[in-house]
Amino acid sequence: MGGYADLSLAEARRQAKELRARVALGAECRVQSAEKQECKAEALEKVEAAKNAYAVVQLANEYFTKIILGRWKQPNIVRSRIEKDIKPNIGKIPVEDVKPMDISGMLEAIVERGSPTVANEVLNACSTMPSSAMLSSSTRRRRLT
């Protein structure tokens, strides 16, 4: 309503009377509860979308099992890069939210620890993962239809 110096006693009483009348009619409560319900619904949608998001971890695991395993002589090298470098840095991020800065930060951390060759291997894996995901999603669509 206002501070002591901002509002006279008569004005404060008049405003209080108006607010009591609104509450008695229920107008304020209905508006607030509708806003609260909308906010709750939006929050639930966001939580549900986050649960259903296709994270980099899932993409990396799919990439390893479908592309690397059975084709490489030493698949454990790629598995090591995924487990040691990709999953800890960007594993929890949904695939559609990965930004070039995320990849760059991960590669810089690898180079800083003294492994520029490993950084190149991780970059190669990160660049081939999305194409493998597109291939597997298109085959999934064909199976569904």
From TrEMBL:
<feature type="domain" description="Phage integrase central">
    <location>
        <begin position="59"/>
        <end position="135"/>
    </location>
</feature>
<dbReference type="InterPro" id="IPR050808">
    <property type="entry name" value="Phage_Integrase"/>
</dbReference>
<dbReference type="InterPro" id="IPR010998">
    <property type="entry name" value="Integrase_recombinase_N"/>
</dbReference>
<dbReference type="InterPro" id="IPR011010">
    <property type="entry name" value="DNA_brk_join_enz"/>
</dbReference>
<comment type="similarity">
    <text>Belongs to the 'phage' integrase family.</text>
</comment>
<dbReference type="InterPro" id="IPR053876">
    <property type="entry name" value="Phage_int_M"/>
</dbReference>
<keyword id="KW-0238">DNA-binding</keyword>
<keyword id="KW-0229">DNA integration</keyword>
<dbReference type="GO" id="GO:0015074">
    <property type="term" value="P:DNA integration"/>
</dbReference>
<dbReference type="Pfam" id="PF22022">
    <property type="entry name" value="Phage_int_M"/>
</dbReference>
<protein>
    <recommendedName>
        <fullName>Phage integrase central domain-containing protein</fullName>
    </recommendedName>
</protein>
<dbReference type="GO" id="GO:0003677">
    <property type="term" value="F:DNA binding"/>
</dbReference>
